[in-house]
Amino acid sequence: MEKDLFGKALLDYQNGKYTEDLITSTNISDEDVLPLPYLFRNFETMPKLEQTALKLTKGKVLDVGCGAGNHSLYLQDKGFTVKAIDISKGAIKVSKQRGVIHTEQKALLEETETFDTLLVLMNGTGIFQELQQTSKYLKHLKSLLQPNGQILIDSSDIKYMYEDEDGGLWIDMNTNYYGELDYFLSYKGEKEEPMKWLYLDFNTLLTVCLSVGLDCELIEEGEHFDYLAKLSIKD
Fold this sequence. Notes:
Layout: H1 5-14, E1 22-26, E2 29-34, H2 48-56, E3 61-64, H3 70-77, E4 82-86, H4 89-98, E5 102-105, E6 115-120, H5 134-143, E7 145-156, E8 180-187, E9 190-191, E10 195-198, H6 202-211, E11 214-221, E12 226-233
Keywords: Methyltransferase, S-adenosyl-L-methionine, Transferase
Pfam family, one: Methyltransf_23
EC number: 2.1.1.222, 2.1.1.64
């Protein structure tokens, strides 16, 4: 995120300068509005999968891609020790302003501490970017786990986006995995550099997890092809 438009938008909202929302799109979908108030949601307005993940949280926590700090703030209020990280400088500023105690601007692969719970939410597999990088990221997440630790991660199977009116699938099997997307973000007339973003179906996640020594349990499915999974080190 070279321009950090995401961070700028969060800072505008936090500092009372909210005049317009973020605009997102992908290489297979049209422009859509991402309302800034949604990025500041409380527990009651979170999707059910996020609520479930927070209820399952235990011990010392790493909140990966913390955004405005919603998950971290909720867990802090419940007495958890939480470290919140994000690559967005603006997001980290906002998290600090909102009261997240321990927060740091860094990429996941730069983290070295160990934790009891790793939260990788809001389509957490997106940070893997491409299917071929999934094992690298999962191995790193595994290295951050304390004994009996857990990774709570969510994603969606976006196969439905390739369906035609008759229910047929238009997926080119000669190209990359269908969940690998180019993600575009714009804010107040500025465009962010496109980034790779990965939506991962559960069976594929399960397969890669087993290959790197992680158990992968389907915890809950959402209403729109989304799911929450719990990963842990195989006995």
